[in-house]
Amino acid sequence: MNLDRRSFLKISAIAGGGIALGLYESPFGLAQASQRFAPPPLETRAFVRIAPDGTVTIIAKNMEAGQGVKTHLPMLIAEELDIDWKDVKVEQADGDAKLYGFQFLGGSTATPMNWDPLRRVGAAWRQMLVTAAATAWGVPATECTTKAGRVLHAASGRSVGYGELGAKAAALAPPALDSLKLKNAAGYTIIGTSRRGVDNHAIVTGEAKFGIDVQLPGMLHAVLHKCPVFGGKVNNLYNDTQSRWP
Q1: How far apart are CA 125 and CA 81, in angstroms?
Q2: Which of 43, 114, 183, 244 lies in disulfide reach of 187, CB 3.0 to 4.6 Å?
Q3: DSSP code string of 214-244
């Protein structure tokens, strides 16, 4: 059964949630990319750039339409990368499924579809940074840890910032994403916290561009007119391609 969010909320109010959850099982399963969509493997290095000053640019893979994905999807990567959020910059990805996997918009599926894959991208980068530091120090990678954008070696007291390791880490072959161990929820420092939307300033100052801002030569506009009563049917259809809204 395909159940949209509006219907889900209506049924939840009536049934107290118990029945609704059972009905919603199928659409929720559909949102699990690994089970239903078989997405192409993510290109780990396409998602992160690390500047020498330690600034980490994370690519937001999905289209932002007011639902907050440009902020919360990069948060998944940043969490497993073990970087301080203040050192993160976010850029919007182009449409490229080969690099970024499914870039789907709609149905509240962004989090369930990307929860595991994007955390693994962050974990892969963290492992690459640890490997780069361990190689430079001549120590086993298993002796190194990370914290807030630095690789640490407790036995020798050494540490190095991600900015100094970025180029070396980027040159390494990324580990298999399904081989990585992810953080326990108890260790989260970014996921589950409130973060300001990365485009908030641009939005409130009118700088942000939305689909409605696009203007092309000879562009026409379509308007959806919903029936004012439930169960109504189309009586007639008006079509005038020469019409222009004022």
Answers
A1: 6
A2: 183
A3: ---TT---------SSTT---------TT--
Residue 65, pLDDT score: 82
Q: In what order do the strands lie in the sheet with 56-60?
A: 48-50, 56-60, 88-92
What is residue 15's predicted lDDT score, i.e. its pLDDT?
Answer: 47
Mean pLDDT of 204-211: 87
Q: Amino acid identity, residue 84?
A: D
**pTM, two decimal places:** 0.74
Tell the burial category of 111 from Cβ atoms under 10 Å away from its Cβ (0-12, 13-18, 19+).
Answer: middle
Mean pLDDT confidence for 169-189: 94
Provide the 3-class DSSP secondary structure of residue 158: strand
Domain boundaries in the chain?
Answer: 1-30, 40-204
5: confidence class by pLDDT, cuts 50, 70, 90: low
pLDDT confidence of residue 241: 53
151, 144 in Cβ contact below 8 A?
yes
Task: Name the phi and psi angles at 165, rounded to 5.
Answer: -105, -10
Class of domain 40-204: alpha beta
Interacting residues of 125 by C-beta distance below 8 A, sequence separation 6+: 44, 47, 48, 77, 80, 81, 169, 174
